[in-house]
Sequence to fold (669 residues):
Amino acid sequence: MRIRKLTRRTRAVVVALAIAPLLMVAACGDDGGSDEASEEAITELGENEGQVSILAWPGYVEDGSNDPEVDWVTPFEEDTGCEVTSKVYGTSDEALNLAKTGEYDVVAASGDLSLRLIAAGEAAPVNTDLVPNYENVFDFLKDTEWNSVDGVNYGVPHGYGANLLMYNEESVDPPTSWGAVFEEEELAKHKGKVTAYDSPIYIADAALYLMKHQPDLEITNPYALDQKQLDASVDLLKTQREYVGEYWSDYLKLISAFETGDTTIGTTWQVIVNAIGKDNVKAVLPEEGATAWNDTWMLSAQAENVNCAYAWMDYIVSPKANAQATEYFGEAPNSEAACAETTDPTHCETFHAGDEEFSKQLWYWRTPVKECLDGRDVECTDYSQWTTAWTEIKG
Amino acid sequence: MRLTALLAAPLVWLIAIYVVALAALLITALWRVDSFTGNLDRSTYSLDNIKTVLTTPLYRTVAIRTVGIAALVTVIDILIALPIAFYMAKVASPRIRGVLLIAVLTPLWASYLVKAFAWRATLSNGGLLEWLGAPVGLQSPGYGLTAVVLTQAYIWLPYVILPIYAGLERVPDSILNASSDLGAPAWTTLRLVVLPMLVPAIIAGSIFSFSLTLGDYITVNIVGGANQMLGNLVFVNAGAANNLPLAAAVALIPITIMIVYLAAVRRTGALDNL
Fold:
């Protein structure tokens, strides 16, 4: 009996204590938006602050802790006195959330992130006059629609690469068109051995194919799809789904699938082709062109270490550091001068660096937004609709 | 009063970690996301996300697939676990029993990912399964739902063996002897005496394999080919889509299924066996 009484009292205490955190949750409302972005880029640099915090893709900021041979951060720290702390991210969406915390001075952003950062007021304009190495950068990478808005520059180019079509020569005739993974009669030859990139952004690959083969859909930009165009792309991908063995987002998984022969055709990156390193596994840029990524070093609007941030941006686009970083990751560097610094003399050839004709065939990743990127006066589908569509395609 | 203080600490912990988290999940499911800035809009509450989850055919298909996989994994695990546990508890000598117990427990020390990737290699083109099956004309099922069921059944098997083994240990040998003294053949003893006493233990084991499979999304990524389960939809919505409210709404499906399952199971007394 006594125990029971105690238990009841315990219960009251527990309930009171339990409600407390709930109230706390309720009290934590919106903690206010981010600070207003400064509209003007700074015009001169001051003293280095002594530290800089960087948010980037894996393999972009290597200080030797992953591989003692791979280190381009230490020379920077010795030269500038800016101590580097870095964080890596796995997806552009994760990066957006991290960037919003304001803890990072510099962010390496792909085209499907950069405009979102600018729109959210998280990116500050960059004065490229304060980045001496910027002048080396290939001209066609400057002032593009994913690093500039209304003539204001928001970052310096890092490197780029294309989503290519990879195939196993032993079981697949060398394809010249993306039709190999989108046309049913072609797909039927490799049922269960087809792969595709596992991300909503892959819908753009289907849209690019439709853009070239179904002109009546009037697609002009694979990242600006209205509802009808999205539906057509989704239908194409649903047909493809019947023949897909597995999707990939982890590139090591794709490597193993091609090595064992479980997968024989599908999208890839150049770095994956190199990693497999077998003569019978090849990659082509099909006649329709391809989707691609193009990364930009951006300055956070909340940056506390602006001078060190500029120092980093100048350092990482400098020929030597850029060559090290892009070669390590497996993508094209941003300048001719960087091409001269690569350890593999054929690196730039392999990745088609500076090849403007090659670059023109590429549609760099962008974030689909409601306001059509191609300037049409209709409502386009946004990334959340693409995500919903993507889960439906996979079924 | 000392007892109160003693009990309050773990209970507060339990409530703060589990109950509040569940409540937060439920509340999150009522919010929505501003599609342009990607910020959570906490100002309005609506049932839209839950409605989407209930009315979209995709979520129904995936939910049914997930429950089907979980049920199949559970049945397979129970069928394998019963004879193993019986042998361990009633037939094996203490020495062998110890060895078997270690054999069952050791895989739990190996990383889950290593086991899943081992199955990926086993099932692959030219892998172990194909090599073993070739002489008898069997092929590897390849990556797909069959592979998911195989891998999950393997990974969760120890969690099913252990409660059944513990349940069998509690069945006194004297009852088995009495049954055979009264003329029952071994099979009848198993069916009419042992099995009914084991039901709570079997259900306890099934709770593990069923709930663990229900929430899994890694195995299906590694060996599931192009298929997806509920966990993948939660992952995609929370990660790629940055739509936490919808992810929370999807996460309510397995939670609801487990609550229904646990409520049904409670009547059997299996929860006393956990």
User: Anything to note?
Assistant: The first helix of chain A runs from residue 2 to 27. Chain A touches chain B through 50 residues (CB under 8 Å). The first strand of chain A starts at residue 51 and ends at 56. Chain A has two domains: 51-160+293-349, 164-268+368-394.
